[in-house]
Specification:
heterotrimer, A: 295 residues, mainly alpha, 73% helix, B: 705 residues, alpha/beta, eight-stranded mixed β-sheet
């Protein structure tokens, strides 16, 4: 039902080659700007945590245990009398580190695998996608647990676990973009002009893989935090005393019987906020880069 | 509302009064329809003709009250048998909202929907729900709109299917199992089911092959005579429309520009209509020059004051810019035109000189490209959808084809979807490798070589594709697109700079002024201009032959002549050969020196275009020509009903056309005929070629026309 | 239906390499990476002779592919190893703990799927109205909250403050005796044995965990259904249905819904994966005796064979669920059948 007019208007809204214009459209979208602000706040926290935290995160003070939130301790204190607020600030740093590092790694690995499988095809495609299928056959947290157990607790264990679990999604999307782009008419046209496989890959196909994968990147950042915090909740991830949002919720849970609601609620809240932000960001990017040249 | 209005619309089945419709897409407003007025009487058949963006679809959907939710009625109303069915308050859109206002509107419309007004959509596309059986969708109409029981509804549906020539088994099929023509007939059956007073046929034959189109038109004509409905036929195909309709409406840029009786287009008075007709190649009579219309149809995102055709019109002058230039003026009792100038058109029919066609002596010229015994086989997709064919699992898309194009020649390749013409064009363009056979370019075999050697041949053969939107990367600027071959083949840039070469190519492709276009992006230019960009891109490699694969079929009608003339110019000025591939036999005849006719992977007829068109000797060619002229009843009279058969023959040894052929005899199902020369340069693949030739079936039809 | 049979055969065949791959991966994770499983089994304080006995028993000095063969052979015979810490075979524990987990997951699906579908259709029909925006924000929240946090907060609010929920200490209040074990699913067993008190109480204990789990389910599902419906409504064949004047509920339920549902089947299958993960966390928090709980305690006890057994079972269940979903999809979509 779309007329040519409609499609012209749609593409007009997305003049290619103009990254800035897309960016501004992203900002004009309320969900977009809110999510960006949240992300920026978190990044600032992560970077400045050592400077802005009122107390060192592992400072034990056994006389100050289980204090409810107050001006002195914004989020109260826990079993060891450590300031929950400071711990949350450091935990945000850890969690952001984990998610950015692992998702970026899986982005690169996944996209390369996907593009290779999609472009070269045949046997490599079959083999690679089978491997991806096997990884996907495990529910993500379960697989992460398995990897975490196998390697042993630690910062890099979580990174590896989250990375491995996130690779298949990227490879799938990259592969499907490449498969459909391979059949585009202008690719055939390029071939008739004498375009080599490399030329076609870099000039025509690769640029198309950017926007769909950026969307997935943002969404996966959210998923990564959930996986990482779930792992730590179960004790498979980062060992104490390193502050991590999920681990803090786990220990906070055991304090509920002491009437301590703040030790578990606040850390979890900060998980929710950043995941919301990543989700909103991913969806807004998707809306803003919608280039469906329908007829 | 004064009393004169009461008289006005009471007399009509449908009365559209000063209707204007806008769409809102994001922040942009599209003025799709402006001030449209029309009355349709009982059992009258109206044809609405126009190009994309002219507003005809908007009008159709508005009448049926199924516009999308972002459409707004900004003025006017529509009466159906005296009752208002569309106005600014009611709108003309469908909605799933459930508030009281929308419910009241639907209540009002209940008796009109499908019982009063029904629509024949383009069935070949998405108009049938893929998850439900065809029969269910048909009988649901009876169950929910006439409260019939399931059994009664099923029975009625089967009768309905029979009336459009579909057997009972179609009832239990799913849409994807039917051919385009069958789906279209289902949609027609649906439209007639509740005996409406008015049927709107929206592009009912687009995307069907010519012979099936002809069949569908017969069905539509039956609607008029048998069911006595009023018919609104909408199409971009000018000649098709005139066959079906009593009166013709020409639309442009959301407005009506001419209203006249349809028996002939000759006395068309609006410049647009006139220029449009003159830009279409005719199949009958002598070959005459076609005149392109410059520019492109407007995008309607801003209000146009005065005549919308002014920018493209050869006859425009200052009064055309006044707001009342768009008023319809009466020329006679049944002819109105929206033009202040009302020019008198000169006898603008030049006979094209035989010289410019230059077909004599071509056969001695050097062959640029030749296919020898070319075959391409595909593996049939393994079994999820199994076909009933016996024999091996391969489909021969191209079956031992021999064709050639000589220097400075334009050769036409005519075939429908499934004929293998696209595969053949890919093979010749070195974009696919053949299973058997050879491609010889300038005397050297070209298809069995490695990558680097093939690359050298690529410069000689360039391809222009059918889809102007898809053949250019939307992210590239025009400059990027046209300079891409230079980036791939840097050795070409010895003398001039890349930019100079690009500009030169643009000029050759008539994409001028170059400064204006060179930095634009594909979505900013029209379809015709996009094709010119593709042509310019190919020209930059100095090819000797351009393979044009259906270059105009996706373009607006007013833009087609320009491309055809450009191709002709490329031959006459630069001596570039053209292989023109199309399903439209009229344009093939107009452009080409020689024609090959292709059917199911084989060449069934070949020769000079005059021979092949005037004295067609293969039954398939004859039916193509007759269908394209579309003289009423001609196909049935001369060839019979069998020709509409879509069936395939199981036996791979038989003639491929046998199931449809009116002249078929036993030998045809046993042996596949060879190409035989029946006269100088004229080859036909038929056991009875000579006798068919002697009947001169098409010559009679053409000369008569 | 010949096409369907072929489809079925092909899908079943492609199941084999996937299952094999799952087994290989679990093998790699459980035998190859952790170093010496024997050591892990016994603990750090060990003497050499004990170690070599265990090593022999586990066949650790044999080449890798032989080890895999032994592993595979054991699996075929449902021998998942021995749980030294809990005193029975792992297969025993798996089968013991499977039903409560199944019960929990099933309940979450039963609650989550219908709500998700209804919510999705609801917001699709009210696009861009306030109710749609509210739903969208709500579901966004639903997919962004980690299940463990949701449950901790629920417990805080409903148990500690409002005191309407039971203590998160298992399937049944301590004062009641559990019903005899027939299926292993406590709600069903109490029903079957006519134990009304147990029935009500166990349901009461399920409320909080099921609500939390189903939240993720219906939040994701409703978003998908919403976008799927919106896609479908804009298709041409819907326009035909409108033009015909079919009643609104027929258009939505018979024509649009079926089309919108198709992608939902695939999504529900994928959701099961998330559900399995969520169940592990849920059982931990609510102390519900199921596979998740077993996995958690095994983690605490460093009982690696047990953990890997749970991991493998989860993967196999997930693979089967996806397979079933594919088959259902093939049954519904006529384009695959014919």
């Amino acid at each position: 039902m779309e007329s040519i007019v409609e499609s012209k208007v749609k593409v007009n809204n997305r003049d290619r080659g103009r990254f800035l214009e897309t960016f501004f459209r992203f900002l004009r979208n309320p969900a977009g700007s809110i999510s960006l602000i949240i992300l920026l706040i978190y990044v600032v926290i992560a970077v400045t945590a050592p400077y802005i935290a009122p107390y060192p995160p592992d400072q034990i003070n056994l006389s100050q245990t289980f204090l409810p939130p107050s001006l002195k301790h914004l989020f109260g204190t826990g079993y060891f009398g450590r300031d929950t607020f400071s711990r949350v600030l450091f935990a945000i740093r850890i969690d952001l580190e984990i998610s950015f590092i692992s998702v970026s790694l899986s982005y690169v690995v996944g996209i390369v695998i996907g593009i290779y499988a999609g472009y070269v095809g045949r046997i490599s495609d079959n083999v690679l996608m089978r491997i991806m299928d096997i990884l996907l056959a495990f529910p993500s947290i379960i697989l992460a647990i398995a990897i975490g157990i196998a390697i042993g607790p630690g910062f890099w264990t979580i990174i590896i676990a989250v990375t491995v679990v996130s690779i298949p999604t990227f490879s799938r999307i990259a592969r499907s973009v490449v498969l459909s782009a391979k059949n585009d008419l202008y690719v055939l046209a390029s071939k008739s002009l004498g375009g080599s496989r490399w030329h076609i890959l870099f000039r025509h196909i690769l640029p198309q893989t950017i926007s769909p994968t950026i969307v997935i990147y943002s969404l996966t950042l959210g998923a990564a935090i959930i996986i990482a915090s779930s792992l730590s909740f179960l004790g498979v991830g980062i060992p104490p005393p390193t502050p991590e949002l999920g681990a803090m919720v786990a220990t906070g849970y055991t304090y509920l019987q002491n009437g301590d609601w703040w030790s578990s609620t606040f850390p979890g809240l900060f998980i929710v906020i950043i995941v919301i932000a990543f989700n909103m960001m991913g969806e807004t990017i998707r809306e803003v880069t919608d280039v469906t040249l329908r007829r | 509302m004064d009393l004169s209005d009461v008289n006005n619309y009471e007399n009509y089945t449908l009365y559209i009064e000063n209707l204007s419709i806008e769409y809102t897409i994001g922040t942009v407003r599209v003025y799709a329809l402006s001030n449209f007025t029309l009355g349709i009487k009982e059992n009258e058949s109206i044809g609405i003709v126009g190009e994309s963006g002219c507003g005809k679809s908007t009008l159709a959907m508005a009448i049926a009250h199924i516009l999308p939710p972002n459409a707004k009625v900004t003025s006017g109303r529509i009466y159906f048998k005296g009752q208002v069915i569309v106005d600014a308050e009611m709108g003309a859109s469908f909605t799933l909202r459930h508030n009281s206002k929308d419910r009241k509107i639907e209540e009002k419309l209940k008796m009109v929907r499908w019982k009063g007004i029904s629509v024949i959509f383009q069935g070949a596309l998405d108009s049938l729900n893929p998850l439900h059986k065809v029969g269910t969708q048909l009988s649901d109409i009876f169950v929910y709109r006439e409260s019939l029981s399931k059994e009664e509804a099923t029975a009625r549906s089967k009768v309905l299917l029979a009336s459009v020539g579909l057997d009972d088994y179609v009832y239990d099929m799913y849409p994807h199992q039917l051919s385009g023509g069958m789906k279209q007939r289902v949609v027609i059956a649906m439209a007639v089911s509740l005996r409406p007073a008015l049927i709107i046929a929206d592009e009912p034959t687009t995307s069907l092959d010519v012979i099936t189109q002809y069949r569908i038109i017969e069905e539509l004509m039956k609607l008029k005579t048998q069911y006595k409905v009023s018919l609104i036929n909408i199409s971009h195909d000018v000649s098709l429309i005139s066959r079906l309709s009593d009166r013709l409406i020409v639309m442009y840029a959301g407005r009506m520009v001419e209203k006249l009786p349809s028996n002939s287009f000759k006395p068309a008075r609006h410049p647009y209509t006139h220029m449009l007709v003159n830009s279409i190649p005719r199949l009958e009579g002598e070959i005459s020059e076609i005149f392109p219309i410059r520019g492109a149809p407007p995008t309607l995102v801003e209000r146009i004051i005065g005549c919308p055709f002014f920018d493209r019109c050869d006859y425009g002058s200052s009064p055309c810019k006044d707001p009342d230039a768009v008023e319809m003026r009466s020329i006679s009792s049944d002819h109105e035109v929206a033009c202040v100038v009302l020019p008198v058109f000169a006898k603008a029919e030049h006979q094209m000189e035989a010289k410019t066609r230059g077909n004599v002596g071509i056969s001695s010229a050097e062959k640029v490209i030749e296919a020898v015994d070319l075959t391409k086989e595909f593996q049939k997709k393994s079994g999820i959808m199994e076909k009933t064919e016996v024999g091996d699992n391969t489909i021969k898309a191209v079956d031992h084809v021999n064709i050639y194009v000589a220097k400075g020649e334009i050769v036409g390749l005519v075939g429908e979807t499934g004929s293998g013409k696209t595969t053949l064009s890919r093979l010749l363009g070195l974009l696919e490798t053949p299973t058997k056979g050879e491609i010889i370019i300038r005397g050297n075999p070209a298809n069995s070589l490695g990558k680097t050697a093939t690359r050298e041949f690529r410069q000689t053969v360039q391809t222009i594709f059918q889809d102007p939107f898809q053949s250019i990367n939307p992210r590239f600027s025009i400059y990027d697109v046209i300079s891409e071959p230079l980036k791939i083949n840097p050795h070409l840039m010895k003398e001039e700079s890349a930019e100079d070469k690009v500009r030169k190519s643009m000029e050759e492709a008539e994409l001028t002024p170059t400064e204006v276009y060179i930095n634009k992006y594909p979505h900013q230019i029209s379809g015709g201009q996009k094709q010119r960009v593709s042509i310019a891109r190919g020209l930059i490699l100095n090819p000797e032959i351009i393979i044009a694969d259906e270059p105009i079929s996706m373009l607006d009608v007013s833009l087609r002549a320009g491309i055809l003339n450009l191709l002709s110019k490329l031959r006459s000025e630069f001596n570039i050969s053209i292989l023109y591939i199309t399903h439209d036999i009229a344009s093939a005849r107009h452009l080409s020196d020689r024609i090959y006719v292709m059917y199911r992977g084989q060449i069934v007829e070949s020769g000079t275009s005059e021979e092949v068109i005037r004295r067609s000797s293969h039954p398939y060619t004859i039916s193509l020509v007759l269908a394209s002229i579309g003289i009423q009843g001609e196909i049935k009279q001369k060839l019979g009903e069998k020709i509409f058969n879509q069936g395939e023959n199981i036996n791979p040894k038989s003639c491929k056309f046998e199931p449809r052929c009116p002249f078929a005899e036993d030998i045809c199902s046993e042996t596949d005929p060879e190409l035989k020369e029946i006269s100088q340069g004229h080859f036909v693949r038929c056991h009875f070629a000579q006798s068919v030739a002697n009947r001169k079936l098409t010559e009679q039809a053409l000369i008569k026309g | 239906m010949k096409g369907f049979q072929k489809f079925l055969v092909l899908r079943t065949l492609s199941l084999i390499p996937t299952v094999l791959g799952v087994l290989i991966l679990t093998f790699i994770l459980s035998h190859v990476i952790p170093g010496n499983p024997a050591l892990i089994l016994i603990g750090p304080e060990v003497n050499k002779s004990e170690l070599s006995i265990i090593e022999n028993e586990l066949g650790l000095n044999k080449p890798l592919y032989v080890q895999f063969f032994i592993y595979f052979w054991n699996l075929i015979h449902l021998n998942l190893g021995y749980d030294y810490l809990n005193g029975n075979t792992i297969s025993y524990f798996i089968s013991f703990y499977f039903p409560p987990t199944f019960e929990l997951a099933l309940a979450a699906m039963i609650v989550g799927i219908p709500i998700g579908i209804v919510l999705g259709i609801f917001s699709a029909l009210r696009v861009n109205k306030t109710s749609d925006h509210v739903t969208r924000v709500g579901t966004l929240l639903g997919i962004s909250m980690p299940v463990f946090w949701t449950e901790v907060v629920f417990i805080l609010i409903f148990f500690l403050y409002l005191k309407v929920a039971p203590a998160p200490l298992g399937q049944l209040s301590l004062s009641l005796t559990p019903p005899p074990r027939i299926t292993g699913m406590i709600v069903l067993d109490s029903l079957l044995t006519g134990n009304f008190a147990d029935f009500v109480n166990s349901l009461w204990h399920l409320v909080l965990p099921v609500v939390a789990l189903s939240l993720a389910v219906f939040a994701t599902l409703s978003r998908l259904i919403r976008s799927s419906m919106l896609d479908v409504i804009n298709k041409d064949y819907m326009r035909t249905a409108f033009a015909i004047g079919l009643p609104r509920n027929i258009i939505i339920n018979k024509y649009a819904f079926k089309n919108a549902l198709l992608p939902a089947i695939t999504v529900i299958a994928i959701l099961t994966g998330g559900l399995i993960s969520g169940v592990v966390l849920t059982e931990t928090i609510f102390s519900l005796p199921g596979l998740g709980y077993y996995a958690y305690t095994s983690i605490l006890n460093h009982d690696y064979p047990a953990i890997m057994a749970v991991v493998m079972i989860s993967a196999l269940v997930f693979v089967i669920v996806n397979f079933v979903a594919d088959v259902i999809y093939g049954l519904i979509d006529p384009r695959i059948k014919y």
